[in-house]
Amino acid sequence: MSDIEPPELPRGIALAWGVAANPQRGPKREMSVEKIVEAAVELADADGIGAVSMAAVAARLGFTPMSLYRYVSAKDDLLLLMQEEATGLPPEEHRQEEGWRAKLRALFDAQTRLYLAHPWLLSIPITGSPITPNSSAWLDAALTSLEATPLDATDRVAVALAVTGSARWYGIVIAGYAEQARSTGMSPDQITVHEAELFDRVITAEEFPALRGAIEAGVFLSDDDPFHFGIERVFDGVEAYIATIDRGEPKPEADSWLVSEPAEVAEDKKVREARKAVRVAEKALRDARKLERQAVRDARERAARRQ
């Protein structure tokens, strides 16, 4: 056995797992971690994550901010516990689906609906792997869905992350549209039509030929869901990969993680100046192309009038 002591759990994680020490003094039955988190989630659901502060939560519960710190000692811990509470456990219904693909699709849909119910979850940054009970349960559900496949543990985690990432991106988009509908009073259909009209005004075939073609095809007024299309194509890729395993083909070499540019490079004065010059040149090029397109249109109109 190793003599190395395991790292101590940060208090927020310890609270999530129910292994943190209870406060030794302060309000007794009137206050609890659960009540604090519940009040904070209610604030976030009503007014967004920006409305959540220790003072606001304390006021909602009728206590002083200092009394909260005896239970939750930091704002970051509160956000972690809020995320855990709002995330909840994955729905049991996905287990009833036939096959890994249907199970993962059910988890994808459930996670997306979670973001619709609690859009503020998307404002909490991802700072590491899931290490709280409910977040771990979602990952475990995805991995369990893949147990009958020949994928190894690394592949299963990669597929689970692809599903989670797709659901998060889908959630960002639909939560954004929902917020726009609330703030403007427009219906989702009205927002779609309004955006299509804006696209139609500024996107030209000369500057953005492929995008203009999509507009002309009515893509941005379509009822088809591109995100469900996308996740199904991800599943197609996984199925194709599983087929290569079944055929005994060698596993492709794994890619390395992308890493940030070293600070000594990104912060170098000459590098910053050069990149600024590139941005200036790109803007000048865009402006020049705009002038060129206008000149071509004007020339065509003059030629047409002379005919």
TrEMBL record:
The keyword Cytoplasm does not apply. Residues 271-301 form a coiled coil. The keyword Coiled coil applies. Keywords: Coiled coil, DNA-binding, Transcription, Transcription regulation. It comes from Microbacterium aerolatum. One of its GO terms (biological process) is negative regulation of DNA-templated transcription. It comes from the Bacteria. Residues 53-72 bind DNA. The lineage of its organism: Bacteria, Bacillati, Actinomycetota, Actinomycetes, Micrococcales. Residues 30-90 form the HTH tetR-type domain. This is TetR family transcriptional regulator. One of its GO terms (molecular function) is transcription cis-regulatory region binding. It holds the Pfam family TetR_N.
